[in-house]
Amino acid sequence: MKRFVAILMCLLMVLSLCACGENVPAEMSKETYKLGKNALEIMDKYLSGGIDAAEAEKQLNSAYAAIEEEKNSINPNPSDPNYVNDFNYSMSVKSVSFSVKNFILGLRGEENTLGKVPDCQEARDFLYSTLTGADKNKG
Q1: Up-side HSE of residue 74: CA atoms within 13 Å toward CB?
Q2: Closest Cα to residue 23, out of 131, 128, 125, 97?
Q3: Whole-angstrom distance, CA of residue 68 vs CA of residue 97
Q4: Pair 84, 75: CB distance under 8 Å
């Protein structure tokens, strides 16, 4: 019963995210948003039983590599024309990266840097809140 409720909640959140259109948070690039949304879809497929852990890990590793590439493209040199002078921008891509990595570690049953095995649903929910800006609406 718990699994059914979790799957139903995941589907409702995905549908609500889709219904919002492309409401990219102001502190996030469109590319980071697109990569994060793709990772979220993979996570939801896994959590709903649409793909197995091996396939989810394979797809998420690919998404993680793309997110890391995006993160590394943030230029810290102020004299460069591609310099991003926005701390929030770099933090948003790091949050997306963190969520995906924690989900992968949860799939593998491996500990993160805090010494605990991450919960896949929590990693997914953190990514969702990062993409929707829900964490900024808390009082």
Answers
A1: 20
A2: 131
A3: 7
A4: yes
Read off the DSSP letter of residue 20. Answer: T
Q: Retrieve residue 131's tokens.
A: 């993409």
What pLDDT does residue 28 have? 79
Q: For 133, phi and psi rounded to 5 degrees?
A: 75, 15
Beta-bridge partner residues of 83: 75
Reading the block at residue 76, the tokens are: 């810290």
For residue 88, the tally of other CB atoms under 10 A from its CB is: 11
So what's the pLDDT on residue 11?
Answer: 59
What is the mean pLDDT of each successive set of 10 residues along the chain, which is 139 residues long? 63 56 75 92 94 94 90 69 60 88 92 88 93 59
In whole angstroms, what is the distance from residue 83 CA to residue 21 CA? 28
Separation between Cα atoms, residue 65 and residue 109, nearest integer Å:
20
Q: Which pLDDT score, from 0 to 100, does residue 124 have?
A: 95
